[in-house]
Here is the input.
Amino acid sequence: MLEAFLREGFLLFGNFSIQPHHMIRIEHIGIAVKDLSRAEEVYAALLGAPSYKREAVESEGVITSFFQVGPNKVELLESTRPDGPIAKAIEKRGEGIHHIAFEVADIRAEMERLKAEGFTLLNEEPKRGADNKLVCFIHPKSANGVLVELCQEIVPA
Ligand code: ZN
Here is the structure.
């Protein structure tokens, strides 16, 4: 399906600069929360549909909860430890939007491209994130105060 989309993208946009190795879409918006169960209730009421899965990412010290919104997702994140990145973000800025995640077709190619454009990557190698994704984060200082995540679906071999 992705291939078809990209092929059509090429055909439809012929001479424009849509390339298969660039951003495909906003995949999800990450929201830092203090109490995941309570936030799940709020977002289930807001979106009119419950969370479809919870997933812990041990390496990041978070539990995530995902909601589908049309072709996009909302990811709620609660810290599992007081010194984790989500706990620190809430300490600094309170609860709220934590990052915007863009789906990419080739995360390594995008990391190279963005590095060459002068962006600061927070990880040099793609790492395993929630929801079966390889991810890389871009420092908010290089993106006008927004923490940007690149994500690519892991396709089973
Ligand atoms: Zn995310």
Notes: Residues 28, 30, 75, 99, 101, 149 surround zinc ion (CB under 6 Å). The longest helix spans residues 2-13. The longest strand covers residues 23-33.
